[in-house]
Amino acid sequence: MHYHSHRVTMSREAFMKLSDYPDRLGGIVDCVHHIGGSKFDRTVPDTAAGFHQVRTEYKRFILYKTFDNKEVKALGQVLTLMEHHYQRVDGQWQLAGTRLGSRMNEFNLERIFLEKKGSKAKI
């Protein structure tokens, strides 16, 4: 399978820490994930892979002193094929890793995820 040039593979721990950077999101960001289709393959009894078509819509709002005024500052949409890896540990299925295959970005997506100078938050 061929992906767009932006391809990231990360561990479960890195995936869980992704939103742990205060400089990364900041302000109000609204997102909606539309799952188009999913397929699961069990490779061996205790491991499986899940493939998910996802279209995500993002809106970044201008932050005022109150949350009442939600003026849209930036819009972005992404079409992605997510590959999740699962492992059964002590009888429980757990996320073991993920691979992002971004296929298309629309609008001004680069203005959704902020990175301040000196920030170590990178995808």
TrEMBL record:
Task: Enumerate the spans annotated as Scytalone dehydratase-like domain.
Answer: 10-118
One Pfam family this sequence matches:
Scytalone_dh
Recorded superkingdom = Eukaryota
InterPro entries under this entry? Scytalone_dh
The protein, known as: Scytalone dehydratase-like domain-containing protein
What is the protein's species of origin? Pleomassaria siparia CBS 279.74
